[in-house]
Design goal:
heterodimer; A: about 700 residues; alpha+beta; 8-stranded mixed beta sheet; 7-stranded mixed beta sheet; elongated; B: about 220 residues; Butyryl-CoA Dehydrogenase, subunit A, domain 3; 2 domains; 4-stranded antiparallel beta sheet; two-stranded antiparallel ribbon; about 60% helix; disordered N terminus
Chain lengths: ~700, ~220
């Protein structure tokens, strides 16, 4: 066996590695390749990690809070950490690779949360799904940025909300509500962003957007105004409350309109002014070139309350600006004493002065300077009688000190001032009201009623109806008697007698002879005789009277009525004496003027009118007094006439022959005279009764 | 050959220098490449068996990693979507106090698969290296692994049943997560790996090695 050659090891031909390897190895290789491919792919597809800093992390959860762009998820929050110093919350977000290229420095992020506001509900879907982060960026690829600062509120300009981007600026003294809608015909077509105050603090400016396609509604002639809040007005048609919509009432809002056609289309970045209301906005269209305010300083010696910010500055009655600032000033070196002076800064619109050409501040200052040389001064004047508000008036004083000129002080030109023209209007107005109050309207009415009743009773009395013819006759007779030479002579003779007595007495006084006394007595006797002679004509008179009475009896009835009418006409004439007639007129005129004054007062009119009215009222009162003074005289004269007649007739009554008619006539006259006396007394007592009379 | 007899070992076909065709059972002398009757390849031992074991074992292990990393169940209730991995779900259950259920899940989904991996790896190594564990014990271990393999699918059953039963539209819906697929693949590959293991090698090992030494 040992000799036998060693058995040749029959090794099978060595197979290749692939031949020996089982095909099964393909499976793990395949799995490995798949796994590696998937891993590489997912790593490759993974976008960059960006971090956004928010003030707080309400609702942001790692692994579930999404980042959306145009409402499509483009990333997910992978972790939430605190920023350095715990001042904020940083959300680390894995963005999708495709989108990440666009996320450059211009991108902005904000958290969308459910929001309930007056303008509606937004972000309701986040109630169930939780908040998400909305991103906004433009469609241009830029260098990637990984650290952002989250916004508190959504930005105004963002993709999907394209539109005309403008800026809104407040007018001097105006206000602006930021984050509010811009309405047009009640439809929200734009939005105002958050406003910021200018560096100088003299206006607020806010970005605004007018969504497409409404941008074409805005032209160079478009005016914006504030519709927030509401206005209450009380007019002849009752009280009115005016507001745009409940949303703007609470949340504020703007609207606009293009009052004048032909404006040029505006481009992004145009600045518009926001006016307080529609009227102002409409007016502003016609006050073009509202240049920058020119501010002037005015120092008033007196420190009078009533001047407020925004008070008007007027030049020749035209409002050219308003008071911008008020303060006190004490400058011992400049004024020589330590009194507090009123330091007013007024802003004037150079355009309102009507200057043509260059409206630069220098040009306006030089213009004003020239006017100041001619006597232009600023002074305080009453702007409103009722509120006692003041305004600044630029007036030209005739004999102003020449030295005054506009001087530059602390970079602001100072306008010289003069004494104020402030009338204590309140007191005057009060006086007017008191006087009106004290007018006896009620008594006047009562008297008028009494007079009318008396007149009615008088006119309807039977005696009166019967009287006219007798009166007429009597009057004729009386006229005859009175105008008869004899009667006329009586006073003359008496007068002569008295003159003689006077001379006699004077002669006695002068210590002359007693014989003069005897002469005087003789003269008196002569006078008495002449009286007797005149009386001798009486029977003739009575005859005439009888004739007249007879004629009167023959008078037709209609004539009686006519005469009654005449009587009334004459009574009317008495009442219609010029003084009496003027009285109501002048009073009426006075009331009219007063009324006009009150109207003007309401409109903030001048004080002069009030004074004029008061004068008129005074005149009217004087006229009333005058007429009431005249009236008794008038009546007295009438009474005198009747008295005279009565006396004369009474004298004849003692005569033998007096007809029954005459007696009755005289009785009636007496009654009539009494009635007239009563009327006269009534009028005397209540002169104002005439005012209400017709 | 004398040494074999000296050792009192049981003779097998290899010792007698013959090999049987695995398809038609015709016995051929060792070295025959193909069966002359049916044309099938004739081999004494499937030398690639161990390769298959390792390959499938590797795939199973690869699948087991995502099975644990990805969520097994996706529970969508009205407001929230909850995704839980195997271990995460078990921990959650423990926190809720259901320690029993958690233990079952942990044993069925974590302990047993891991034990299977280790057992198969140990068996595969033990046939090439000397081992202190007796052949009988290793055979027993192999049988246990084979038997228990199918029960690892219990997790997949639970997921499948829950997903098909709990579909209450908006209110609540359960759907299988990606891990369930990987877990199923992992179990399948582990089972295939266990089946690819030729248990006869356990018994072959010692002698084969000795033979090897003789050659040296």
């Amino acid at each position: 066996m040992n000799n036998a050659p060693d058995p040749v090891p029959i090794d099978p031909a060595r197979e290749t590695l692939f031949g020996r390897a089982s095909i099964v190895w393909a499976i793990p290789f395949l799995a490995l390749i798949v796994a590696l491919t998937v891993a590489w792919q997912s790593y490759n597809d993974r976008g960059p990690l960006i971090s956004i800093e928010f003030e707080n992390g309400a609702g942001i959860a790692a692994g579930s809070t999404e980042v959306r762009f145009r409402d499509v998820t483009v990333g997910i929050v992978e972790g939430v950490t605190f920023s350095e110093g715990l001042e904020g919350v940083v959300a680390h977000i894995r963005l999708e690779k495709e989108v990440a290229r666009y996320v450059d420095a211009g991108a902005s992020f904000w958290v969308v949360r459910p929001q309930l506001s007056v303008q509606g509900v937004s972000g309701l879907d986040t109630v169930l799904s939780g908040v998400f982060i909305e991103g906004s960026w433009d469609s241009e690829i830029g260098p990637i940025r990984t650290a952002f600062k989250g916004l508190e509120i959504p930005p105004l300009f963002r993709p999907g909300k394209e539109g005309l981007q403008i800026a809104l600026r407040t007018t001097p003294g105006g206000s602006l509500t930021d984050n509010s809608p811009i309405l047009f015909r009640g439809i929200e077509i734009g939005r105002v962003g958050s406003a910021r105050i200018s560096r100088e603090g003299n206006f607020a400016i806010a970005e605004a957007i007018i969504y497409e396609p409404h941008g074409r509604l805005v032209t160079g002639n478009t005016r914006f105004w504030d519709t927030s809040g509401f206005s209450v007005s009380i007019g002849p048609s009752g009280a009115e409350v005016d507001f745009s919509s409940l949303a703007t009432l609470i949340g504020g809002g703007l609207t606009f309109d293009t009052f004048v056609s032909g404006g040029e289309p505006v481009t992004d970045g145009t600045v518009f002014e926001v006016f307080a209301d529609e009227v102002t906005a409409r007016n502003s269209v016609f006050n073009r070139s509202e240049a920058e305010l020119l501010e002037l300083r005015v120092i008033f010696d007196e420190n009078i309350s009533g001047l407020a910010l925004g008070a008007p500055v007027e030049f020749s009655g035209l409002r050219i600006g308003s008071v911008e600032a008020l303060s006190g000033i004490v400058d011992r070196e400049r004024f020589g004493d330590a009194r507090v002076r009123l330091n007013v800064i007024i802003g004037i619109q150079p355009a309102r002065l009507g200057l043509s050409g260059d409206l630069g501040p220098e040009a306006v200052v030089s213009f004003l300077n020239a006017r100041v040389q001619e006597g232009l001064r600023a002074r305080l004047a009453t702007a409103s009688l009722l509120t006692g508000g003041l305004k600044v008036e630029l007036v030209e004083i005739e004999d102003a000190p020449i030295a005054a000129a506009i001087t530059e002080e602390e970079g602001m030109p100072t306008l010289p001032s003069t004494d104020s023209e402030i009338s204590d209007a309140t007191a005057t107005v009060e006086g007017v009201f008191t006087r009106i109050n004290s007018l006896p309207f009620e008594e006047l009415l009562n008297s008028a009623i009494g007079f009318m009743q008396g007149a009615e009773a008088f006119v309807s009395s039977k005696e009166l109806r019967e009287t006219p013819q007798e009166i007429r006759a009597l009057l004729g007779d009386i006229r005859a008697i009175v105008s008869s030479q004899e009667v006329k002579d009586i006073p003359v003779s008496l007068n002569a007698a008295i003159q003689r007595a006077e001379t006699l007495l004077s002669q006695i006084e002068e210590g002359q002879a007693v014989s003069r006394v005897v002469e005087a007595i003789a003269a008196a006797t002569e006078a008495a005789n002449s009286v007797s002679a005149s009386v001798a004509g009486v029977p003739e008179l009575i005859e005439g009277l009888s004739g007249v009475a007879a004629k009167a009896e023959a008078l037709p009835l209609d004539e009686l009525t006519l005469q009654l009418t005449e009587l009334l006409a004459s009574a009317d004439a008495i009442l219609g004496t010029p003084a009496a007639q003027e009285l109501p007129e002048s009073l009426g005129a006075a009331l009219d003027e007063l009324n006009a004054t009150l109207t003007e007062l309401r409109e903030g009119g001048a004080v002069r009118n009030v004074n004029a009215t008061l004068n008129s009222a005074r005149e009217a009162a004087d006229a009333v007094a005058l007429s009431s003074r005249d009236l008794p005289q008038l009546v007295e004269q009438i009474t005198d006439v009747f008295d005279q007649a009565s006396r004369t007739i009474a004298g004849y009554n003692q005569g033998d022959v007096i007809s029954r008619d005459a007696q009755a006539a005289l009785r009636d006259i007496s009654k009539a005279a009494n009635a007239l006396t009563a009327l006269a007394r009534l009028l005397e007592r209540n002169p104002t009764a005439l005012i209400r009379g017709r | 050959m004398e040494r074999a007899r000296q050792a009192g070992e049981i003779l097998n076909a290899r010792d007698l220098g013959v090999v049987a065709c695995t398809r038609c059972a015709q016995v051929w002398p060792i070295g025959t490449r193909a069966c002359n009757r049916c044309g099938h390849r004739v081999y004494h031992r499937d030398v690639k068996s161990l390769q298959r074991v390792w390959a499938l074992w590797l795939v199973g292990l690869m699948c087991y990693i995502p099975a644990n990393l990805y969520p097994m169940l996706r529970t969508r209730t009205l407001l929230t979507v909850q995704e839980s991995t195997i271990v995460g779900g078990a921990i959650e259950l423990i926190e809720y106090g259901s320690v029993g259920v958690a233990l079952i899940i942990l044993i069925a989904s974590v302990a047993i698969p891991l034990a299977k991996f280790m057992a198969i790896a140990f068996l595969a190594i033990s046939v090439t290296r000397p081992s202190t564990v007796s052949k009988n014990q290793r055979q027993l271990l192999y049988e246990v692994v084979e038997y228990i393999g199918r029960w690892s699918m219990i997790d997949i059953f639970v997921v499948a049943i829950l997903s098909s039963l709990v579909q209450l539209n908006v209110l609540v819906a359960i759907s299988p997560g990606p891990a369930s697929l990987f877990f199923a693949l992992s179990v399948i590959f582990t089972m295939l790996s266990a089946q690819a293991f030729d248990s006869r090698m356990i018994w072959d090992a010692q002698r084969w090695r000795k033979g090897k030494k003789d050659h040296e």
